C-alpha cells in the first residue's frame, strides 16, 4: 500500500476477532488511525465479546460481530462443547 492509497482510504476495517480485553488494548491504535484519517469511516470486526466494547470507543463508526469459534459464548445454552 502506498502513501497515496492510505490518504485515499475512505473506509478502514480494524480486525480484532478476540475478546473484550484484546479489543480494549487496541484502542490506542484505533485512536491513532482516526487522528491521522479524520474523514475515514473506521469499523471494528470482532467477536461478540470484543464487539461489546464498541459503544465505549468513540473513534469507531461501526462494528461487525463475528462468531469466532475460539471465543466461548457468555451463555451456557449457546456454548458448544467439543
Task: Describe the structure using short key phrases.
disordered C terminus, alpha/beta, three-stranded parallel beta sheet, 3 strands, 82 residues, 4 helices, 32% helix
Overview of this protein structure:
- This protein has 82 residues and is α/β, with parallel strands linked by helices.
- The chain has a domain at 12-65.
- Helix content is 32%, strand content 18%.
- The chain is built from four helices and three strands; from the N terminus they run αβααβαβ.
- The N and C termini lie far apart (41 Å).
Give, in order, the helices and strands: HEHHEHE
Q: Quaternary arrangement of the chains shown?
A: single chain
- Over all CA atoms, what is the radius of gyration? 15 Å
Number of strands: 3
- Strand residue content: 15-25%
Please give the count of helices: 4
Question: How would you characterize the largest beta sheet?
Answer: 3 strands, parallel
Structural class: alpha/beta
Secondary structure: helix percent: 25-40%
Q: Please state the overall shape, judged from the principal axes of the Cα atoms.
A: elongated
Distance between the termini: 41 Å
Enumerate the strands of the largest sheet in spatial order, edge to edge or round the barrel.
Answer: 1-2-3
| Unreliably modeled segments | 75-82
Give the overall pLDDT as a whole number: 82
Amino acid at each position: 500500500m502506498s502513501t497515496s492509497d492510505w490518504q485515499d482510504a475512505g473506509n478502514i476495517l480494524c480486525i480484532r476477532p478476540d475478546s473484550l480485553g484484546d479489543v480494549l488494548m487496541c484502542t490506542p491504535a484505533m485512536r491513532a488511525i482516526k487522528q491521522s484519517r479524520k474523514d475515514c469511516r473506521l469499523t471494528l470486526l470482532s467477536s461478540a465479546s470484543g464487539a461489546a466494547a464498541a459503544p465505549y470507543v468513540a473513534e469507531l463508526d461501526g462494528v461487525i460481530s463475528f462468531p469466532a469459534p475460539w471465543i466461548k459464548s457468555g451463555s451456557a445454552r449457546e456454548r458448544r462443547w467439543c
